[in-house]
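Much of our argument rests on the idea that a fold can be written as discrete symbols. In the encoding step, the backbone of a single protein was reduced to a row of integers, each denoting a local shape. We regard such an encoding as a compact summary of how the chain folds. The record that follows shows the chain in one-letter code together with its fold in token form:
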Amino acid sequence: MTNETKQTEKVWFVTGASKGLGADLVQQLLAEGYQVAATSRTKQALIDLIGERDDFLPLNMDITDNNDVKRAIEQVVDKFGRIDVIVNNAGFSQIGAIEELTAEEVQRNYDVNVFGPLHVVRHAAPYLREQRSGHIFNIASIGGYVGNYAAFGIYCSTKFAMAGYTEALAVEMEPFGVHTTLVYPGYFRTSFLEKDSVMLPAHVIDAYANAREIEAQHLNVISGRQPNDPKKAAKALIELSNQSRPPVHFFMGIDTAVLVKDKIAIIEQALADNLELTESTAIIE
């Protein structure tokens, strides 16, 4: 059996696959001969996208429902006999200044973007540990590393949370031969910023002109003009899955490098500016 054949026998599990990056990834995987299970809130949307075929398992799954996620992963193993690559892609952006958003709006964004992927990891990990192989991709956002966007504070915080627990997950899964990659996409030309995909605040406070400006910029200027191709993102993820030592952190997109370097420079300067005060709290014995 060739190494290439072994790679295409991997079973992928992709959440949020009916549109955007998830849809492009599923289509690319099937074109390359992989076996794929994909989830959406509506199974029919996946069937409409892909059709019905033996190497494809479309699943209804509410990512916020722990038991629903457990059942979906069991269905994958029942059909394909294993599960190899997890892609936690499902998510959405709750727009709104911090003060504007209700507890329910914040909770909903966390339920989908933070607790949903944790449900997936919790129920997939036993299979990966048992077979002592696998790869978990957690799709965060460049907003999970650079968070200074007015009106996107809660969304960015969900991605910072994902980044935080993924670093620990990578260490925890390494002894079992399971790779973990945290992906920070920049702006990709998907429907992510379209008005029927993002959630706008139910209660707007007029004083937040800066939030409305950034909100309008994303919805009216950036949407549809993003500089990155989701089909190329799908190929990048597949290439990462084939690496023998894939990275824990992967910044994806032509726009990400500058943003990351700027953030690193800000942090380094903040540390340097008050280093003496930072270290002044040491106990002197």
The domain at 11-253 is CATH 3.40.50.720 (Rossmann fold). The CA atoms of residues 100 and 238 lie 39 Å apart. The two ends are 64 Å apart (CA to CA).
